[in-house]
Specification:
heterotrimer, A alpha/beta, B mainly alpha, C mainly alpha, B: mainly alpha, 10 helices, C: mainly alpha, 13 helices
Chain lengths: 513, 263, 312
Amino acid sequence: MAKLLHVEDLNIEFHDHLIPETVVYDFDLDMECGEIVGLVGESGSGKSMSALAIAGLLSRHDMKKRGTIQFEGKDILDCPRSELRQLQGDEICMIFQEPLTSLDPVKKIGWQVEESLKIHTQLTPQERKEKALKALADVELDDPSRVYDSYPHELSGGMRQRVMIAAATIGNPKLLIADEPTTALDVTVQSQIVDLLKKINKEKNTAILFISHDLSLVSRLCHRVLVMKNGYVVESGNVKEIFESPKEEYTKKLIEAIPKCEAKPDEKDDEVNMVEVRDVCVSFTRKKERVDVLKHVSIDIKEGEVLGLVGESGCGKSTLAKTIIGLQKPDCGTIIQKYPNTQMIFQDPYGSLNPARKVGLIMEEPLRNLTDMSPEDRRRLAEEMITKVGLTPEYLSRYPAELSGGQRQRVCIATALMLKPRLIIADEPVSALDVTIQAEVLKLMDKLHKDMGISFLFISHDLRVVHQMCDRILVMKSGEIVEEGNRNDIFMNPKHEYTKELLKSAGLTNIFV
Amino acid sequence: MKQKRFSFNLILGGILLAITLTPALVGLLWTPYDPEAMNSSLKLAGVSIRHIYGCDNFGRDIFSRIMAGSGITLLIAIGTVAFGSIIGTAIGAFTGYFGGIIDEALMRINDVALAFPSLLLALVMVSLLGTGKYQVMLALGIAFVPSYARIVRSEYIRIKNLDYVKAARLAGASDLRIMFVHILPNTKTVLLSSVMIGFNNAILAEAGLSFLGIGVQPPDASLGRMLSEAQAYMFTNAGYVLFTGCTIVMIILGFSLLSKEIK
Amino acid sequence: MKYVFKKVLSCIITLFIVSLLVFVAFSLIPGDPALSRLGTNATEQALASLRHQMGLDRPLVVRYFEWLFNALRGDFGKSYSYNMTVTSMIADKLPITLTLMLYSMVLMVIISVPLGVYASYKEGTAIDKAIQIINQITMAIPPFFSGILITLIFGMTFKMFTPGGFVNIKINPARFFGFMFFPSFAIALPKSAMVLNLLYSSLNGEKKKDYVRTAYSRGNKSKTVFFKHMLKNASIPTITFLGMALADMIAGSIIIEQVFGIPGLGRILLTSIQNRDYPVVIAIIMLIACVVIVSNLLVDIIYKLVDPRVGD
């Protein structure tokens, strides 16, 4: 096979601050036609920068690039813009992480899908439309002609990403660069997009450079993988080799951070309910239409357990959490809590800490409002709790903006501990964090569960995380609990169709066989 | 590059305000001549060493009048912005936080008020309240309330749905505590920049009202009032118009350059 | 269509609220119009009969609806100060002010849009910076001062027009429009600076958006990306501002009429405010409200045409 892409010694440097900052060091990559290469790393590792450089999209004047990028022998870094444009959208195409913002909001889908044909071919409008409709059908969109006449905001996230793929592959490019194409999507949609990319690769022999932080997706799709950290490629090789015998510490850490789904014995605890939710309904009125978010939901939370609640975005799992904790009034039904002071941890550690207040004040807030503890006692307790979550008391005098995502989530956990709750509801507590940080936070929560006997209601869309953390699992879809059972039952013997689909999307079918 | 432009705006804005505000502040205590003392021999006298900006149609020293006049203009601007922002913030905070029917009704009225240019609203207010510097302050203040109310309201609506407000509620904070301890400090960037813009608008609106003769009344001087008097003599003493007008331009330019940096 | 209908309906409701607020506010002002008309030494009897004649002895609600129905037929009552109907006082002044407003609107768009687009297209160059500096200064000039400066420069120094030499359109249309250019320019200048600034910064904001990167990744030329993708998106906030600017133009024209000695609505409004001639004030405010609200309606409709995301 001919060499499609040859990158050697690529360095990228930013110059828009006083001190130049290098984001990519000595990046090497060779790709053959029809090959799928994964580029893995956490946020800030330089993977997206490398991809943008290969696509010829880094043209900012306050940035310096060194090295060579050759696409079929043509140097992308040094060739004039006009020659680069010949390749872009024709031979090299790209899809991005956030399909909503990556599409022009005021142009119809059809126009956008056809755009690269308009630039690179001499087809008539009629021919272009035919090709566009075919491309939309190829990415498995129902009713391509309706999509053709829609605007981006009228489609769902998954449909938009399909449109992006259709627009990128309409001219049969030789190289498709996909920059975190599934990160903004639901699990089942993620898996469909990965299957679609696989299909395109097989049918059109398009080489794909797949950038992701999700190792499990990479392992399903890619032939070869490069692991990046702080701008360096730390390890590269065949997917199988890397996963089975990683050489570098960092790669090992990344792989270990993927929650393992090994069979664990079910632990039987006391069967005493600490929370009983009975027949709860919640509905909102959106654009004069009633939307039932929770439809007669009944659940129990038992003492000392970690209960998992699984479902995709919009299924009502966050609303259920808010209803239990009292932030949302149910339309009907009852909620009985055995213990007071149930606390909650939110998904986005950047939104859940008040940026105008210091960590210490944030942590003391519940004590100030709900107890008559003296300021000294409050401070002492805050120091104790922040040490418990693995930070030092110095953090109490910092502002949230000075902390990293993982540290913020630790502060949130510490704040939740201040009132000594028996139950903490954790709403997607790790989904905004990098994988290695995820693993640390999960470990911390597990430790709190074991040491302090705190129960958790653990809400997540990530089945692997749920499997690692939870004893008992509820599966939720469109406001209803569709399946409930112990971990092993749910994972090894799912009954409901939807549970099976979720497991399949996460690549978790028959893992124990 | 960015570093350089940063200091350029800041320095230029600072210089302009120093040139204009220092005389205004000094003018509160001392002016070279009595700003109201007339002298028929100096009618419309040009620029000289003793009268650096010349004299007006009554032979009054223009520089002294500008010192006193910018003081009144700034006083009115401060009063207007203080009144408008405090009342507006209170209304915006309550309606944004609680929502409901009162919110709907108030916002409806607010939209109507906002559709009118603030100068026109102030005109209506002045015709209801009468003329004079305190009336102007009140009239402009009321005319400015809707814009602050809307800005603060939308900030409250945005912030009240953030997780940290939910967390504060779970921590047992009362509504008032959430509104003023948790949310208010987070509106400061938006509030500060709209106060800066509002300050400029207040100066413009006061000058406009006084220019039309329905703002500050004699013997008080204000920059707009003086400009309106100066206009009649612009063919005989152009300096009068230019010095007064340029003072207004410099104050506004200075504040807008500074507010650019604050953003 | 449903969108337009809804907007029109909301405009009518808004106008109704405005008229109610304005009428009530002016009726509650302390002071007796009959007294001010007859003077302090009028007899109680004469006052009472005048009050009856003016309809002031009837309840507020009745007076409001009577006024409203008359106003809908174009009759705004009689002036307190002059023995004329309000309508006849305003009728020939309104077109002058409207001309001034539309003229300055057109000038504003002609000045600001090309310059804003050009400056953003050439972002970072010397031309861009020059435009920015001039723009910043222009924004700080109050409209009446820009009027005075224009009179000084174009009227006095270059003798391009006669200051105070307003010509009625019926006498000489060409000279009317020639004269009106200068006051319109004075109104348009500071507003153009604001529009320019807004368009410039929203265009620069669009440059960082993801869809621009997508457009480049398809092999578009920079020019195509700028004019085909970014310009339409960046125009959305600018359109909103144009609506507000149109309302501000009215305020501007009231002031500028004084500077240039134009016999428009502004002058009657001011004398009526000083004379406490409320029927005239109310009528003019309502007219301005109509203009403002109708122009906002137009903006909403244009908005809908440009931005498909605006809901029905």
